[in-house]
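Changelog entry: the Glycine cleavage system transcriptional activator record was regenerated in this release. Current contents:
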Amino acid sequence: MKRLLPPLNALRAFEAAGRLGSFKEAAAELHVTHGAISQHVRLLEEWLGAPLFERHNRRVALTPAAQAYLAEIGPLFERLSQATARYGFPDTVSRTLTVNAPATFTLRWLIPRLAHFRAEHAGVDVDVDTSNEPLESLKENYDIIVRGGPDTFYGYSMRPFLSEERLPVCSPALLQRLPLRTPDDLRHHTLLHTSSLPRLWPDWLTSATISTLKPAATLTFDHFYLTLQAAIDGIGIAMGPTALASDDLAAGRLVTPFAGPRLQSRSYCTYVPEGKSANELVELFRSWLEQEGRRSQTDAAP
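Regenerated structure tokens:
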């Protein structure tokens, strides 16, 4: 029985344009011109006898039928890529993973662990971009995106790998100079704030039933990693995320002067496009993140 197959180059152009939401970005990915993408898509629309895209100025949107079609064929392209890697010419297949993650998470947690991954998997390269943009606003097609969660996004699989709590942290040297016996002693200290997370200290002080406490001073930074560094340097007390401060807590660079209260926070999760979720390298890195997440939380446990 003869297979009903559309023009494969046209199908490839459609898959890239539909996945990226842009003919221009599809052309860049496939190393062809914008006009070539348009021509291939038009050819496929004629072959199928139905429109695939709605044109909106510089962006394009899939029709409902085309969304369903893309959901079917996207994983097929990924399976074809994997089969080629296994049985074809592996030297021609990329062994590079593209990852997008928040800057503080990347600096404080991911980078210190990447050397271990590279040592265990020497043939795999990892390209990391940092961003705090919402997942749905990212334009580039990443293999793995790290964001808070758990959340549900259409077209992505989600898995949590690192839980998070927040409580005061500081340098042990600071406690030697100015002890903290009870939360009320915070009135003698400098409280370190992050401008993007203005509610951390007020929420914790409320949980500790000292919402009216007035500290000796406050200091605000625009990035969370700067706030943590200021705490390590003994400048004041920070509201530390237990996950991102786990290495410093384990090494004794930071301590937690109080056992609680602990503010619950969102977990770190991996979000992977459904067409890539079966990719061998993606699964390898994803599982490694989960393993490292369990290890770091065990090391930081009091």
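Residues 117 and 288 are 8 Å apart (CA to CA).
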